[in-house]
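Input record, target 12 of the design panel.
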């Protein structure tokens, strides 16, 4: 495919010199268009518009009407204007500086014999290359901005979809928890009622995480003190009578990822419900949930002031709660210990603030 012949607009009131430029640059592969004044040159540039009719301009300084600098200023105001090589017979360097500051791509001194035409050819070629590079850079920058905008739009859409998913999952889990609560309320056997209530608490613990994610500004983390506060409020409402009236929480505003938040919530649900059932055989008593940071580690404790080691084993117990706590502790890579100095029962879990590295052995152990 043949390359298009570039067009140079030569603006100069000297017709004889214009003919020399025409002959000289035509031999060098240019098509030359002549304008005898700044006004005529501006009209030709505006008429060419964005069609690419004029590729480069050679502009003389001294002309009747608009001079070169005045014409240059108006050319630069035209959107998509071609590059300009400023031409003058004056030796005054200040004109060159002014022209370059005004936007000229290059500057050269002419003579009446046309000896400057080879220099004009070199300057025109350089101005065209510079314009091509500038256009390529602007197109690249525009593509970068467009890519950023597309990425931002996709990220916003993804976040909206994630919020919607969390909202729907949370609602669905809450419906399941409500159904379990209704079934537990209508159950005649205590064992069935207890099993359904425990299942309801586990489902509610997961539902709370999804509700937190739906309303949070950050979909990648859960603030544990807020999450645990809502979780314990659910436990208070689900408890029979007022046995949960003295359930307290002391937790720092620590953020962790949603998966680990689910594990923390399920552990808290199991240990709190265990304390409700066994710590105070004769009624209700205080149950404390605490979460503190110790360097890069987190310490979670659930304690009561009840009967402690004197608790009687329930022959109906399946050990499901202990297995769930052990499984969730493994998920957190947490150590599980019983505080032997506590008068009642105090279970402590220590785990790292961030997820354990892949392949790291778990330190979890259920008592």
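The sequence produced for target 12 reads:
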């Amino acid at each position: 495919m043949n390359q298009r012949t570039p067009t140079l607009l030569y603006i100069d009131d000297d017709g004889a010199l214009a003919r020399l430029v025409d002959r000289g640059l035509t031999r060098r592969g240019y098509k030359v268009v002549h304008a005898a004044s700044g006004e005529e040159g501006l009209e030709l540039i505006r008429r060419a518009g964005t069609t690419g009719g004029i590729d480069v301009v050679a502009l003389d300084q001294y002309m009747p009407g608009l001079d070169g600098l005045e014409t240059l200023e108006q050319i630069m105001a035209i959107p998509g204007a071609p590059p300009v090589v400023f031409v003058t017979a004056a030796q005054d360097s200040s004109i060159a500086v002014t022209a370059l500051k005004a936007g000229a791509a290059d500057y050269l001194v002419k003579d009446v014999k046309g000896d400057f035409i080879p220099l004009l050819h070199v300057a025109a070629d350089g101005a065209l290359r510079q314009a091509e590079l500038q256009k390529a850079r602007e197109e690249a920058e525009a593509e970068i901005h467009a890519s950023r905008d597309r990425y931002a739009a996709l990220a916003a859409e993804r976040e909206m979809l994630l919020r919607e998913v969390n909202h729907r999952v949370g609602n669905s889990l809450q419906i399941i928890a409500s159904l379990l609560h209704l079934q537990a309320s209508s159950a005649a056997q205590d064992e069935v009622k207890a099993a359904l209530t425990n299942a309801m608490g586990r489902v509610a613990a997961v539902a709370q995480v999804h509700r937190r994610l739906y309303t949070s500004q950050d979909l990648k983390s859960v603030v544990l003190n807020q999450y645990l506060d809502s979780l314990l409020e659910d436990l208070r409402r689900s408890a029979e009578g007022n046995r949960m009236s003295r359930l307290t929480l002391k937790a720092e505003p620590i953020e962790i990822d949603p998966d680990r938040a689910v594990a923390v919530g399920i552990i808290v649900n199991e240990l709190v419900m265990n304390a409700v059932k066994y710590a105070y055989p004769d009624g209700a008593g205080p149950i404390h949930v605490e979460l503190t940071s110790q360097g890069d580690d987190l310490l979670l404790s659930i304690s009561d002031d009840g009967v402690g080691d004197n608790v009687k084993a329930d022959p109906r117990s399946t050990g499901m709660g202990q297995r769930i706590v052990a499984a969730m502790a493994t998920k957190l890579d947490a150590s599980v210990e019983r505080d032997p100095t506590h008068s009642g029962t105090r279970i402590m879990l220590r785990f790292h603030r961030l997820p354990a590295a892949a392949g790291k052995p778990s330190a979890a152990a259920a008592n």
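The first helix runs from residue 15 to 27.
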